[in-house]
Design brief:
alpha/beta, Rossmann fold, 6-stranded parallel sheet, 35% helix
């Protein structure tokens, strides 16, 4: 059965009607569906790559972004439901990791759950935020923080016209993270595989290990070379790890 008619939330760069599993990918703050461009080449042939496109970026650039996690997660659940006619898994990096976790929690209430949750570059949700909020900083200070995080190309940061276009979405994404309040609930039934960057100054191995508490199934942790945005620098290694894990999931 083909995936339901495309909606603005879910992209499918290489439709694969023969796929036996869909991998929904959630981007980091400021990122969009293009974050995962080319990833299908690293996945098993029977996996269909489905990046999530959030409002305020990509083809949805003119739409107002969400600035709170709960309504954003609810909207994603509504968009996903018609596309869950096959087994599926979630991958999320940084903000996307937290978002995918909260979407999985909401789907559980509907008797649906991913076969596996791939968490990348994000401390466990129960771990307190060690940093002061930045989403409401004056523009110069906010841009300085973006530069420190090293996820926005310098050429973009130095392009004032482009930054004026991107700043509302970036501020909204950080507000999503910085206003999030973790609510304890039973652990998920699906396995969690966590990935981190060996040179990431903000997300330590201990913070990633704490994701183990969020599953009553299997847990694994793999550290890869790179800083917070290791998913780009170490993409081949991450792709191999995802390929292995998804191949095992498909064979179950």
């Amino acid at each position: 059965m083909p995936m339901a008619a495309p909606n603005s939330w879910i992209t499918c760069p290489c439709p694969n009607p023969q796929a036996t599993l869909r991998l929904f990918c959630f981007p980091y703050a400021g990122g969009g569906a293009l974050t995962f461009r080319g990833w299908e080449a690293h996945l098993p042939a029977t996996v269909e790559l489905c990046p999530i496109e959030l409002p305020g970026r990509g083809m949805r650039l003119r739409e107002p972004p969400f600035d709170r996690l709960a309504p954003l997660a609810e909207a994603i659940v509504e968009a996903l439901l018609p596309c869950l006619d096959k087994p599926f898994a979630f991958f999320g990096h940084s903000m996307g990791a937290l978002l995918s976790f909260e979407v999985a929690r909401r789907l559980r209430r509907l008797q649906r759950q991913p076969g596996q949750l791939f968490i990348s570059g994000r401390r466990a949700p129960q771990w307190p935020d060690p940093d002061p909020p930045i989403h409401a900083l004056p523009e110069a200070e906010f841009i300085a923080e973006l530069r420190r995080l090293n996820g926005t190309p310098a050429a973009v940061l130095e392009n004032r016209e482009l930054m004026q276009l991107l700043l509302p979405t970036l501020r909204a994404d950080f507000a999503v993270l910085e206003t999030y309040g973790y609510e304890p609930a039973p652990p998920l039934n699906c396995p969690i595989a966590a990935f981190g960057g060996l040179q990431d100054p903000d997300v330590t191995c201990e913070m990633l290990e704490a994701w183990r508490q969020q599953t009553c199934s299997g847990f694994s942790l793999q550290m890869l070379p790179g800083d917070h945005f290791f998913l780009h620098a170490a993409q081949p290694m991450l792709g191999q790890a995802l390929h292995r894990a998804l191949a095992s999931l498909i064979s179950l």
